[in-house]
């Protein structure tokens, strides 16, 4: 009884999706040395065009946002052209694709862009070494000045315009998983005492400025957002974060975006300060279209949609293992299990 996964869904006047299965954003570290998408990436995305919506792997809005090798960008003409090949191929196969716009903040490393420092809300370093680059430790970031914050807003907005130029159907603002926007939203990473820190209104100011700039630039119908109220990746949650998201979610709801997307790897995780799972918390505070994610099977995802826990189901790792995920689920065929060795290659 998975029928509800295959109902078309109207997001707004601009966008209708052919089913409720969304490809989750998945960083694959496969772009070329200029951070341009390759032909292998074109083919990889084109093979997944039967999902209701593909959300691209996180894409850098500018060079100093880079924290992992070979993650693609959307800030040079070559990168925009490279993405046009991807969006054309997806559209030719009848699919839709959003670009996930990304700046890693303190998770960036000067190694990648030849800079002197990385920007973040506050001078609090992430502990440990970079994944896949074990010899590099994270640096103490430079707290962004007001002028630098203004420039970041402008660069997010420009990247969104570049995404539309490149043929994307819209963008998802990456406000999740401990990267730059999320760093402003958690007390663990934001100890500012100016208008960007200290209170929920202040901590939400920069993320809301990015949301407003992008939705004014390309239209709110084409703007989605991913958030992680539970701190679980690249930063630690704090009971005080609850008030930040209690304030932010109604503010986001007022802005009538295309959707809001849960940022989590496993939705069975419970957070004391959210009184349960992240999706449950977000559903309680947000009534518009919500995308759930995190270790769901077709059955558990379909059940969660039927129970009203969220409206659309994003699938990550199973779509790495099964390019034909939608077809297999629809035909009741067994899925190939995911394992981490599959990250070495784009199938
Ligand atoms: C991710 N995830 C992720 N999230 C995001 O917002 N942007 C990204 O670029 C990535 N990249 C990424 C790479 C890899 C290899 C994995 C496994 C995950 C998180 C992803 O979107 C999703 O939330 C989780 O994978 C949970 O869903 P599944 O895999 O359990 O269906
Ligand atoms: C966004 C880019 C990152 C690419 C690396 C993703 C690697 C995924 C491996 C799964 C790790 C799961 C971490 C979940 C943290 C839960 C902590 C309780």
From TrEMBL:
GO molecular function: FMN binding; oxidoreductase activity, acting on the CH-CH group of donors, NAD or NADP as acceptor
Species: Photobacterium phosphoreum
SUPFAM superfamilies: FMN-linked oxidoreductases
UniProtKB keywords: Oxidoreductase
Domain NADH:flavin oxidoreductase/NADH oxidase N-terminal, residue spans: 5-334
Protein name: Alkene reductase
Cellular component GO terms, alphabetical: cytosol
InterPro entries per record: Aldolase_TIM (IPR013785), OxRdtase_FMN_N (IPR001155), Oye-like (IPR045247)
Gene3D superfamilies to which the protein is assigned, alphabetical: Aldolase class I
Keyword Ion transport among record annotations: no
Keyword Oxidoreductase assigned: yes
UniProt similarity note: Belongs to the NADH:flavin oxidoreductase/NADH oxidase family.
Cofactor(s) it depends on: FMN
